[in-house]
Amino acid sequence: MQIGVIGLGRMGGNIVRRLARAGHGCVVYDADPGPGAVLAKEGAVAASSVPALVEALKAPRTVWVMLPAGKITEETIAQLAGLMKAGDVIIDGGNTNFHDDVRRAQALSAKGLHYVDAGTSGGIWGLTEGYCLMVGGEDDICKRLEPVFLTLAPKDGYLHVGGHGAGHYVKMVHNGIEYGMMQAYAEGFELMQASPYKPNLAKIAALWDHGSVVRSWLLQLAARALADDPDLSKITGYVEDSGEGRWTVQEAIERAVPLPVITASIFTRFRSRQANTFAERMLAALRNQFGGHAVKKA
Q1: Catalytic residue check, 178
Q2: Coil/strand/helix, residue 188
Q3: I need a labelling partner for 246 at 20 to 30 A (CA). Which of 68, 85, 159, 260 fits?
Q4: How far apart (Å, rounded) are the C-alpha atoms in residues 108 and 104?
């Protein structure tokens, strides 16, 4: 089927490639014309603007927005809403907050437009391995779009999980779990790295991927990273977050559901971005005040 794709970064570009290689007609646009020009050589049609992209699509149109959550996605969807006609579909495949999905779906419905939220996991490996798709929206619209979803996903890697917002809700929880898993691996490997045995961590990671109850794709990636840089000395421990871990914790608070591991993992990411914090200086000062414990001068 024909589909427009806006946002041709690492994931958006490979989504286009996977669709084009399967015979889907892709019309693409990015604020940077470079990626579109590259994809045009691989079978896509590069549009010079969002209006030009919409104009190039046949009704009923489908446009997949693959942009960072926030202002740029809001502005792009608002622009599309002014250009598209009743019966057309806008898909948001980025990491959007599910509350925004519900709001958008209601606003677009008033114009006769349909909205689908597609939680998309797979990262840079999605082109070859496929993307795990968690999709929210109207039953009949999601069914109409299944040729796209089934092409992008590996076998059994696509599921319509519910109404508007459900796709990004499930993806939010998925990312929260991912944070916790990564934190557990990081702590365990740090303990082994500090042990007197000094095991080969890359080989341990590879070993655990064979028959162990903790085997996973993340562990395979750990083995690869450690094989390339055993002490991880080429990088710093500064860890960003996409926002979905925060939303997961916020939702847990709203629902009074305890998430101690996921919550600890997101706070550890915040801590990774700090050095010589006020809180730690406060601890040192208090120990010095009540017990005369030595402090290190700045």
Answers
A1: yes
A2: helix
A3: 159
A4: 6
DSSP string, 89-138: EEEE-S---HHHHHHHHHHHHTTT-EEEEEEEE-GGGHHHH--EEEEES-
As given in the structure block, the two tokens for residue 277 are: 């914090």
**Amino acid in the structure at residue 1:** M
Q: How confident is the model at residue 298 (pLDDT cuts 50, 70, 90)?
A: confident
**Sign of the dihedral defined by the CA atoms of residues 146, 147, 148, 149, in that order:** positive
Q: Dihedral (C-alpha) 84, 90, 94, 98: value to the nearest 10 degrees?
A: 120
Helix 166-194 and helix 244-255: axis angle, to 10°? 110
CA-based torsion, 132, 167, 75, 19: positive or negative:
positive
For 148-188, the pLDDT digits (tens) are 999 999 999 999 999 999 999 999 999 999 999 999 999 99
Q: Which of 178, 280, 296, 297 is catalytic?
A: 178
Q: Which residues sit opposite 62 in a β-bridge?
A: 89
Is residue 46 within 8 A of residue 28, CB to CB? The reply is yes
Full-prediction pTM beyond 0.90?
Answer: yes
Q: What are the DSSP calls for 208-255, one per residue?
A: HTTT-TT--HHHHHHHHHHHH-TT-TTS-------SHHHHHHHHHHHH
Is 297 one of the annotated active-site residues of the chain?
Answer: no
Cis peptide, bond prior to residue 60, ω within 30 of zero: yes
